[in-house]
Amino acid sequence: MSQALVTQIYQACLQISPYLKGEQFVAPADSIASSQSNSNIIKLLHSNIAQQSPEAGKAYWLTRSWDLLIWQPLYIAMVSIYQLRTLPDLTSLIQRHQHGLVAGFYLTNLDCLEGDDEALIAAAGKQLTALFEHYRRELDLWVRCRPRFVEHLIADAILAKLELLQQAHPESSNAEILRHAKLWLYAFNLPTKHLQSLTLSSVDNKLILQRTSCCAVYKTTNGVKCDNCPRLTQKSKTCIN
Question: What is the pTM of this model?
Fold first, then answer.
């Protein structure tokens, strides 16, 4: 049953993005695994990003490195929970890294948890908190990466995916999405003040995210500020408290 569930997880993730591809593979030397030190690989990831966008500067290189490290684990957890009502063993995750891109993954342990949303979110938060701290400490060996900095990035990443969840399932009420947002923030031991980043659109009264962190992509040659960039002036949004 676990093999079947993991296969379903791989299929569901691939529907999200062709880059979110789960498959069994022999991990190359530059793979990123939770069960080993990845410091040299993470240094290489950061260096590749700096080489690809030298004009963007240190803030972009750091933020891009962090976002690439965490985007797959968080997506895998949310896709598994909300589509399949299960959670794989994220501590067994191996991520592909090639030339400044982290895309593709492999779960070496086929064990999966099953339960209600609240229990699975709590379990996911516990696993991902440990995994993300592992990544942060290793990134911090090469470039300053402090807990306060990644807190905002993690919170924004969580809330952004819940915003997408409501867009995919418009029948989900604002109250239900907010309840789940609280569960995720609690699971990651993040302050509930981050809920203030979720606002109501004056167009359709659905939740939208105003980020508190900036990806700094606008500093790249062809980059522009995101629609929900904190550096943009707020328009047509109502805060909910």
Answer: 0.92
